Amino acid sequence: MQSTDKAFFKRLTILQQPHVASTLRDIQHGIERESLRINADGTLATSDHPATLGSALTHHFITTDFSESLMEFITPPERDTYKTLEQLQDIHKFVVQNIGDEMLWPMSMPCFIKNEDEIRLAYYGESNVGRMKTLYRQGLKNRYGSMMQAIAGVHFNFSMPCHFWTPYLSEAMGQSCTQENISAAYLGMVRNYRRICWLIPYLYGSSPALCGSFLAGKHSALPFEQIGKGSVYLKGATSLRMSDLGYTNNAQSGLQICYNELDEYVASLRKAIQTPSAKFEKFSGKLNGKFQQLNSNVLQIENELYSPIRPKQPTRSLEKPTDALRDRGISYIEVRALDVNPFSPVGVEAQQLHFLDVFLLHCLLRPSAPFADGDFEESEANIKVAVETGRSPQATLSREGQPVLLRDWAKQLVAEMQPIAELLDSVNRCKDYTQALAAEMEKILEPDLTLSGRILTLLRDDKMDNGDLAIHLAQQHKQTLKDTPYKVHDDEFFRQQAVLSDQARAKIEANDKVDFDTFMQQQFGV
To answer: What's the topology of domain 3-524?
Structure first.
C-alpha cells in the first residue's frame, strides 16, 4: 500500500471515532444559484430588476450578478441540506410570483440573444459602492464581452464546524488547532479538489448543447453538430459552460496562482490585481465622461479570477477578499464547477449536495502534496477532457503524468468514498449519502444517465431545439414553484426583506462623503 493510501486510511479511522464523527452533523452548507430572467418566448428580459424584490445591492437573499436580468439567489449557512433546499425553494417561489409573465431560464448557457447590447449591466443605485459594482461589470463587458457573462452556474459553499478541527488536527495531523493550520487543511482540500475536479462536470455538467447565437462571431475548432433549428451540441460533451467557450478566461491562463500556502495564494492573487495589462490599457480613463473599468490591471478585483473553487473568508464593507484571507484565514470553500440542473425548479437537487459532502470530505482526508511544476496544468487539461468528451468511453485523463481512462479513475474514487458516505449516513441517521454515491456510480457506468446525457437524449429523440426544451422546463418549474407552499419563510418575510434592503441602500447612498471620482482615486488610484 502506498504511503498516501496509509495516511488516508489513518485519517479515515480517526474520522470514524465517535467524538470526531459526531461533529460531522454540523457541516455547514450554502447555495448561490444564478438564473437569467426571460420573456415568455425565451428571449432575454430587458426590464429592470423588479422593485418588489428589493435592492440588489443590499438584499441578503436576492440579488443580481453581471446583468440586470441575471439573478442570484443566496441561502445562509445551514447544517441541514434539506432546509437549505427549502430556503432556496422559498426564494424562488417569491421571485416567480413577482416577475409577472417572465420566467427563470433553467439552463447554464444563455437563451437566444440577438446581440450583446440586449444585455443590460446590473444597476445597484447611485451610491459609490453601487456605481463601483456596475463599473466592474462594465470592465468585464469591455474585456471579455457580455455574452460570456450571461452564463449561469450554481455555487456550493462548504465549511467544517469549528469543533471538528481540534480533535482532527490533533489526532490526524499532530497539529494544534490554530487558524493557520485550519487554513492549511482547507488548502489541502482545494488542491485535491483541483486534482479530481473533472468528476464534477462529468456528473453534473448539463450544457452539452447551446443556442447557435452564442457562437456568432466566434471561431471554434470543436466538432459541433446541429440539432433542431438553431442548436448545436458536442456528442461527448458534459459542460460547455466550463469549456473554452464558456465561463473561462484565456487572458488568465498565464497567471500563476499558488494554492500551496495561504500567504503564497494571497500574494499571487494580489500580484494579478496589481499588475498592469497592456491588453486592457485601452480601456483606461474615461469615454464620454465615464470610466470604462475599475483599473487596467490583469484582474480588476479578486472576483475576476475564474476558478472552479475558491477559499473564502466573509468580507466586511469595502474589504478586499485577499485582506480578509490574510487577516482571518479560510473559513469556508466555494465550489464553482456546478452547472444549473435544468430538471430541478431550483437548479440543484439534494442528491447532488449529499454527494458533494462526501466528495469534499474525501478531498480533506487524502494527503495533499504541494502542487509541483505541471500539476496545475494537468488538472486544467483533465477538466478540458471531461467537459468536451467526458461521456466518451475512450475519454482519457492524465494522473501524475500517466494516462488513465476517466471511467476507471472515477470508479476508483467512488470506491474510496464509500466508507465516508457510510459514516455520514451513520451520524445523520439516514441513507442519503450512500444512495447518492450509488447513483453517481451508475452514471459512471452508464454516461447517458448523467445530466448532459439525459439532455442530449431528449433533444435527439424529439429533434428539439435546446431553447424549446428550456422554455418547456421554465414553464413547468414556474408552475411547480407557484403550487408549492412556503417551507421556511413566507411571503411577508420576503416583502419585509425587500423593504429592509431598500432602506439599507438608501442609508449607504446618504452616507457617501465624497464624489465618485474621488472614491475611485481612493480605492483604485485612477
So the answer is: Creatine Kinase; Chain A, domain 2 (3.30.590)
Neighbours of 78 (CB within 10 A): 18
Give yes or no for a contact between 66 and 121, defined as CB atoms under 8 angstroms apart. Answer: yes
Confidence of residue 4 (pLDDT cuts 50, 70, 90): confident
Which of 60, 268, 79, 246 has the alpha carbon at shortest distance from 153? Answer: 246
Longest Cα–Cα distance in the chain: 67
% of residues, the chain, pLDDT over 90? 87
pLDDT tops 50 at residue 159: yes
Q: How far apart are CA 38 and CA 96, in angstroms?
A: 11
Kindly report the length of the chain: 526
HEC profile for 404-425? Answer: EEHHHHHHHHHHHHHHHHHHHH
Instruction: For residue range 100-127, list pLDDT tens digits in order.
Output: 999 999 999 998 888 888 999 999 999 9
Residues 6+ apart with CB under 8 A from 356: 156, 158, 335
The pTM for the full model equals 0.96
Residue whose entry in the numeric block shows the C-alpha cell 432546509? 83
Report d(CA 364, CA 350) in Å as an integer.
21
Q: How confident is the model at residue 247 (pLDDT cuts 50, 70, 90)?
A: low
Q: Which of 195, 120, 482 is nearest to 359 (CA)?
A: 195
Mean local confidence (pLDDT), 255-272: 92
Contact 452, 55 (CB under 8 A): no
**Which long-range contacts does 262-270 make (Cβ < 8 Å, 24+ apart)?**
262/180, 262/183, 262/184, 262/187, 262/311, 262/325, 262/326, 262/329, 262/330, 263/326, 265/187, 265/311, 265/325, 266/322, 266/325, 266/326, 269/299, 269/302, 269/305, 269/322, 270/322
Distance between the two ends of the chain, CA-based, in angstroms?
A: 58
